[in-house]
Known about the structure:
Number of domains of chain C: 1
Largest interface: A-D, 75 and 63 residues
Structural class of chain C: mainly alpha
Distance between the termini of chain C: 45 Å
Helix content of chain D: 55-70%
Low-confidence stretches of chain C: none
Number of helices of chain D: 19
Shape of chain C: globular
Strand order of the largest sheet of chain C: 1-2
Order of helices and strands of chain D: HHHHHHHHEEEEEHHHHEHHHHHHH
Radius of gyration of chain D: 24 Å
Low-confidence stretches of chain D: 1-22, 413-427
Mean pLDDT of chain C: 88
Oligomer: heterotetramer
Strand content of chain C: 5-15%
Helix content of chain C: 55-70%
Amino acid sequence: MTKSNFTRRGLLKTGTAAGAGLAMPTIFTSKVWGAAHTGFTNAPQGDTVTLGFNVPQSGPYADEGADELRAFQLAVEHLNGEGDGGMMQTFSSKTLEGNGIMGKKVQFVSGDTQTKSDAARASAKSMIEKDGAIMISGGSSSGVAVAVQALCQEAGIIFMAGLTHANDTTGKDKKANGFRHFFNSYMSGAALAPILAKEYGKDRKAYHLTADYNWGYTTEQAIRESTEALGWETVNSVLTPLTQTDFSSYIAPVLNSGADVLVLNHYGGNMVNSLTNAVQFGLREATANGKKFEIVVPLYSELMARGAGKNIAGILGSQNWDWKLENEKGARYTGTNAFVKSFGEKYGFPPSQAAHTCYVQTLLYADAVNRAGSFNPCAVVEALEGFEFDGMGNGPTLYRAEDHQCFKDVVVVRGKENPENEFDLVEIVEVTPVDQVTYPPDHPQFAGGALGECNPGA
Amino acid sequence: MGILEVKNVGKRFGGLKALDNVNLSVQENTVHAIIGPNGAGKSTLLNCLIGKLIPDTGSVMFDGQSVLGRKPHEINQMGISRVFQTPEIFGDLTVFENVMIPIFARRDGAFALHAFKQVMNDRDIRERTEAMLADVNMLDKRDAHAASLSRGDKRRLEMAMCLSQQPKLLLLDEPTAGMARADTNNTIDLLKEIKAKRDITMCIIEHDMHVVFSLAERITVLAQGTPLVEDVPDNIKGHPKVREAYLGTAH
Amino acid sequence: MDALILQILNGLDKGSAYALIALGLTLIFGTLGVVNFAHGALFMLGAFCAVTLNRILTLSHTVVDESRTDFLGNPMKVDVPYLFDIVGPDTGAKLIEWSVPLSILFAIPVMILIGVVMERGLIKHFYKRPHADQILVTFGLAIVLQEVVKYFYGANPIPTPAPSAFSGSFDFGVLLGFDPYVIIYPYWRLVYFAFAMVVIAAVFAFLQFSTFGMVVRAGMADRETVGLLGINIDRRFTIMFGIAAAVAGLAGVMYTPINPPNYHMGMDFLVLSFVVVVVGGMGSLPGAVLAGFLLGILESLASMGWVIDLIPGINQIIIYLVAIVVLLTRPRGLMGRKGVMED
Amino acid sequence: MTDHTTDPRTAASARPATASHATETAFLGLGPKDFRLLLIVIALTMLAPFLLNPFPAGSELAQFNAGYPDLMQRFVIFGIFAIGFNILFGLTGYLSFGHAAFLGVGSYAAIWMMKLLTMNVIPAIVLSVIVAGIFALLVGFISLRRSGIYFSILTLAFAQMSYALAYSVLTPITGGETGLQAKINDPRILDPGAGQSLGRANLFGLEMGSSYNLQIGDWSFTFNAGYYLAAIVMLVGFYLAIRLFRSPFGMMLRAVKSNQQRMNYTGLNSRPYTLAAFVISGMYAGLAGGLMVAMDTQVGPERMFWTASGEVVLMTILGGAGTLIGPVLGAGMIKYMENIVSKINDNILHQWFSFLPDGLEDALVAIVYPFIGKGWNLTLGIVFMLVVIFLPGGLVQGGQKVARLFRRNNRKGGGAESEAAKKQPAE
Lengths: 458, 251, 343, 427
């Protein structure tokens, strides 16, 4: 257990010891911390640096948030030279030596996003204003990611997004100070479509149920466009309220609609319930148009799979990463086993993809600072833009400069028929190579946004 | 011409004739009582007077205007104040405030948005309230919460609230219902006291003969929805029809 | 036509959940005059009775299986339920599979106990307090209850499937002369509907025909008078609270196979159940049931594709829209009594 | 005419006055007691950066410091929201369960003003109040046809519809799930720099985010422009609320709560009174929403969810419905728990108890752990229950009762003093 995570103010004490006992007013033009001295917000003073991990701790995604927080703690340990170093051994960039970031010991603060944008911003602001965090990471929904990313842009802080899948995060709402490692709706569509065509044939009629909010819209659009390009037909698409708990009235008409595939553009509790309801209605056993009826869930997560239990058996979906990747698909995905080993030994179960992304984002940030030789957000942005790396479990990866989106292979998975335990619920069907999921920065699904200038905050 | 004129009022509830061709005239500056055994139609008549019920036939004119179909606050603004069976006061407010509110209502109308004037800076209202409280001997209780008053004081307060509006007609709905004899006598004394101090028109709906004969100057006896007799108290006492009406029922 | 029949079936099913929760809520409103914001939490606790029984039945000891390895390459540890040792693996597996229906027996005493403890320990002291205080204390209690559940069971939904005998769907369409697959309905949802009907009938019969019920109904109408008659109405009201808790709990138990339970499912239903109770009319049991089914059916009808195309977003707001229309046309809801919770 | 018989006692009514019949006004049209309260609140809000940061920056207790701009802003903004809510609920007794809708609508109005017109906060705040007022007029006009729980459900229904539509169908106007933020390419027709850089919310050039930092020894205090703007707005709102409480209008609203039947038979039409209270309180909510955007240029629809409406109800009841300062205290308490307790994680716990032997330290951490960090909701729920059980009537009324209890105990000791005290009317 680390007992060394003093808040940053502890160091301010030493930093300002010279003026102890005297009133020492200092005026800053914009932000409080350090701006006048260093030209950017929350410049670390003393020999530590504070990172802010903003994850859902209450509400439906609390368990996912807990897993993210575990990964963050692990990353901090590794950065500070504790533990076995995890992915730092396999990471292609070798600037991380277990001596913190630029020699400064890493400490962190955590907060609760409640999966609400207001609460997430309040929590992030307290990290910035009170604790002096220089980077914020985490989160489990796109609404929160977009809100916190915008805040970090204004405050002059780097935002390393956690789990956020909507195109908007690096599309119409992209920001210069924000970076996304996780994949997105477009990539899900591009990765899934060929495999769907291969598994279920090119002559399929799809029925979409879509969560009635931004992420749902972009995911439906992505899947539709990719599958229709391969010959599928979209019979119908129905929007379902976010607050819906019983989806029976949306599922019931599906079988009689002429469709033979149901696409559930749902996440979290919505997905667990809609899938459970769909299986209840016998969709898995049904046949339509002379074919076996199929269900597709574009975005998979281990926790959702656990919630849906047996119902996910045989259902295709996409993931950013899976802990079995290196074992099953070979050394291209090196880093996976190193991470799973340190995570598994510390916590006793394999990590989720949300944990993986958060861990990787933290390491990537630390490495970028080291390479830039500065904590200045603009220097970090420069170091991350166009950065190519490997050994983080996803194979060779590019942080594209134009939109701050990571490009890497996408994992297509299927729910296992007979899982051995609650952490082994999916099997990897195929890994779609990165060039099949890459799109031009001006792709219409991502239109309407501008990165803007990086903001150091001062 | 009386201040309150009830003409040919009839009201049916389904097959039941609650009021049948009621005619009534309350003269200014008199105490007029309406009595009758239970089920005689007193409450129905009262509800017609205050606009709560609209009669099937006939008219109710107050001061030359019809009251039918008007809302309670409109009827009050016409000059009718009402005393209830159990005192209806503002329990959460102080005695002083209880009396101020009706004075405000009479001066500023049914609605006035004086959101940023201070109540206590209104000298006019304050003085009138103090005078009214003095009039009913309640000035020493001005800061008490109305809910904490004794039953008799509550009745007194309610009376003060009504009188503070200087109503053209004071409507009393069984003001002694459910009271012990002593309380009843106190109420009678209070009403007598009020009557002695000023010119006022009162209409009392009551079934307690004792109260009625102590106060009323004119009495209408109602039975089975229709007025039996109307006369001065002395003539009502021992009137055969009245006796029949009361003894004819279960009493 | 077939689509309509299907959605009415769906509506009946949703309606049974709404009606069951609202029934308990309106019992507490009507008998005790308490605004109980913890009622959703009771529904949630019921659902977790089913989870708990499942956990109890699957209490396991670990056996190391050398022939297999876990994700870190160590020998696999396999959990074997104690139940298998006691009754043998076959009966044991059957029992675990039937844990949800079995939970009914488990939940009734547990929920009555929870209800009675809640009433005696806390709610009792709030009968004479303003509604505002009741809201604050029951809301606080609801948060505490759900956080306790979260602490032990996590935030993720927990799958609790129905016995396999009830999996699959019944084809109504064939029965009515339609093509196969046109009107199908899951067996478990039919079970839920039937179960709800039985519970509702039982509650009504109990209130209608037992002397206990008569006293409670009289107490709902006029508490003071019944108290004056020398009847200990307080004790009866405690029992009523227990029954209301049990009804909510049973609704939760049987709901678990429909949607995997999670710790905040009570809050999801809380607002809705208040709407149902109020649309039905305060203090009216038949009103609550009627409104539950009405809103369930209308919600299902509003979720049909062509309806949404016609009025975008109607499926999002239908319940609230209906509530507004009902309350404006019928001041006290569908079957409300005058003077209950109007001030 | 009868009111000539003035009682001699009336003339001599110069006895020590309670607020309810103070004839003299101390200042600003307030009675001395209210004026004192206003002064205290002014002092508290102006000195908040000091008061909320009582612990030296480096100390382990610094975790409990709340004196950073965002939280201070939230305290006063939710204070405004609760003050406004209290005008409706505390005075008339009408429990609106949909007040967050007005806050949300005000927020959307404000952000659109900033996107289209200028990043200066004045037009945004003004419009947010107006729009929220109009919306409240509409909702109030319909909802106030019913009373009691029927009214509550009507307001809840309107708010939930607003939330659901803002989240989904109205996405083009509201930004849906991701909400609305200031963007570089906003038109901002009045701003010279529009289109080139991201605008910042400001008051004639003074940026809301700008702060002045004061170090005194180990302590550090932050004075934030946005906070002081919000605090001044809150003080004005608070002052107006006091005036309203003491006005004939406020008295009529209390009369509505106390006995609507008597009120109507006294010649007063209660509908316009309740509607006016509803609109005023909706405007306070809109003002809070506008200020939220002014402090933090972002709006999301969950600001209108029923839990947000429930939160202001809880704030008001927790602090003491119908009291002047209670709702502000309640708002502060809930926001403090949400923002401070939720940030304490097990690392910090270990740090606190690190002076203890290892076994004891772990045991203590294990005991405290469920109540902090992700367990902050549990603590909140327990606080709700404790307050309502032990301090009936909320923090303020409960506090008064406790204070009176102490005073009474003291008096038992001081014989002569207690005699004098008995004559004072209890307040």
